[in-house]
Structure formats: structure tokens, C-alpha cells
Amino acid sequence: MHKIPLLGQTLSELTQLAKDLGMPAFTGKQLAEWIYSKRVCSIDEMTNISVRNRTLLNQTYEVGRYAPVQQQASVDGTVKFLFKTQKGHLIESVFIPEDDRATLCISSQVGCKMNCLFCMTGKQGFTANLTAHEILNQFYSIPQSEELTNIVFMGMGEPFDNLENVMKTNTILSADYGIGWSPKRITVSSIGLIPKMKVFLDNSDCHLAISMHSPFDEERLRLMPVQKPYPIASVINELKNYDFSKQRRVSFEYIMFNGVNDTQRHAAEIVRMLKGITCRANLIRFHAIPNIDLQTSPDDKMIAFRDYLTNNGVMTTIRKSRGEDIFAACGMLSSTHNKENL
User: Fold this and answer.
1) Looking at residue 36, which CATH number applies to its domain?
2) What pTM, to 2 d.p., does this model score?
3) Does residue 220 have a pLDDT over 70?
4) Engineering a disulfide at 85: which of 89, 205, 250, 266 sits with its beta carbon 3.0 to 4.6 angstroms away?
């Protein structure tokens, strides 16, 4: 029988746990400090908690740190990690070092329900939501954990489809008893589940990234089934109710498909739609996945598209592809191909 992980529990949950075991309430704060600030891997390392109480905790609980079961390094320094959850599911996350930044691209689900045409995770189908413990373990259990400066929820899954555990994770990371990160170091990416998006925006200061991929209804629907219940125009209209002119940012992710969504007509419509929102656009090269007949736009088209958007008031960058050689780039994460190797 698996023990209950302490990693992923909030200060109030740890305090209640201590009380339930007959320990002083302040033991909850000690537990949080050992787990999140001092990053211990076992209860026995918590030396300011009595031996009796540590023995009591060890009967039912564990810190819950699990090292990745595989890792692959890219020629560009990107590292992809494969984790196994307590129930035996497999998930991937990606460490991306760059100059003075070290970003972890983190997963929130095993697979994904959204079935976007261009995404390997969607082809895998949906298996389970990750708990806050399983999300945080990706952060705490990679060798580069203490180097990290940023997290992006752009790994496997749709974060707003698992909003409760994503929000809990971000609360712990930014809490004084956690590691005290600014929420501005965390970006949550979504395809635009409007009700959950509103809950997130009303209750979080983390950055938001919205997957657009086409400004036109029928085209986006062919790429992304979510367009039917939550059209991109409705997502953008909802975002206009929020202020992104200060520290919190909203950005729009745009994978460029040659001959599909990379014309000036598309660029002009994006400029029209985003008028009135302080935002940025990130253009992303499409990384080929099996059995999907799409190609990335050539560099000259991407540069022209970027320049048109920027010259018309939408600050735009072309995101550098990382980790494509190890299937770690945008849209390429999938844990199904690993199962036979474990």
C-alpha cells in the first residue's frame, strides 16, 4: 500500500494533519519548511521534529519525491524527463536552459481530452488528472530543480481541465512557506476553456498564454475541436474585461502551418481581434508528428508575419525551437511510446 505524500499539501492541510496525529499545530509549519524550502526527501531528515513524531508520520506518510525514470538530453541542452506516477501512469516534462533563465515545461494531465490535430499528447487520449503532488514532483525531483527560474504549464494536458490542482500547485510555489516565487514566474497555457479561464484570472496573478493557431472560426475548428464550444473570438472578448497593462501578461501562441494559417489575411485578422488588449504573440514552428499532413511555415513567411503583427501594434516574437531531436518540442510530448521500454 502506498503511503500518503506530504509534497503537494498546503500549510493548512499539513497543520490539520499534525493536529489529527496529536502533534502541536506548529508541526505543520515545520513540515512545510522541510518539504518546500529545505527540499528534504525523507521524514527522517526533519531533525527538529521529535523521533516519536517522525516515527508516527512514517507509518502513514512520506515526503513523496520520485526521481524521473528516464531522461534524454538534446543537442541544444534541453532535457526531457519521464516520470511514473503512483498509479503507474507516465508523464513527460522538459527542462529548457537559456542564458539567465531555466524553464521547466510541466505537465498537468496524463494525456489530454482536447484532441488538437497537431498535438501528439492529444493523439494519446486522456487517462487522468495529475494531483498537486504529481505536478510538484516534476519541479522538485529533477536534478536542475534549484536552478529553475520559471515554470510553464505547456506540457501534457490542458491545465484548465485540471484547474484545482494547477491552482493548488501555484499557491504552494508562491507561498511564503513554499519557495516564495512571484506568480509572474509561472505561465499557464490554455486553449481557452472560458469558465475555468475566468476562475483562473479572478484568483491568480500568474501569466496566461492562449493557444490561438487561427483567427478564423472554420479553420480553427479543423485544428482544434474546442473552437465549437469556446470560439477564439469569445475567449478574446472575455479577456478584454481584464487589465494586462501592468505586471500580469497575456500572450497568444500561434503555431504556423504552411499554406494554412500563415497569410497576410490571417495576420490582419489577428491585429483586428487583439485591438484593445495589451498582449504579445508567440509564433511557433510546427514540429512534424506521425500521420498528420501539416508542414511548418518557412522562415521567410514567419519573419514577414512577425513583422506585420509588430508593425501593427502586436508585439510578436518567433519562439526558438528546443529539443526537437528528442521529441521535447512544442506539441511533441507523449508518454505512450515509452511504455515498452520500462
Assistant:
1) 1.10.150.530
2) 0.94
3) yes
4) 89
SS (H, E, C) 185-244: HEEEEECCCHHHHHHHHHHCCCEEEEECCCCCHHHHHHHCHHHCCCCHHHHHHHHCCCCC
| Residue 150 bridge partners (DSSP) | 103
What's the pLDDT tens digit per position in 106-145? 999 999 999 999 988 888 889 999 999 999 999 999 999 9
Q: What is the pLDDT of residues 152-170, one digit of tens each?
A: 999 999 999 999 999 999 9
- Which residue among 92, 134, 158, 253 is the active-site one? 92
CATH code (residue 322): 3.20.20.70
- Residue where a domain stops, chosen among 17, 35, 62: 62
Question: Last residue of a domain, which of 31, 62, 93?
Answer: 62
Q: Is there a catalytic annotation at residue 330?
A: yes
Same domain, yes or no: 37 and 124: no
| Residue 92 annotated to the active site | yes
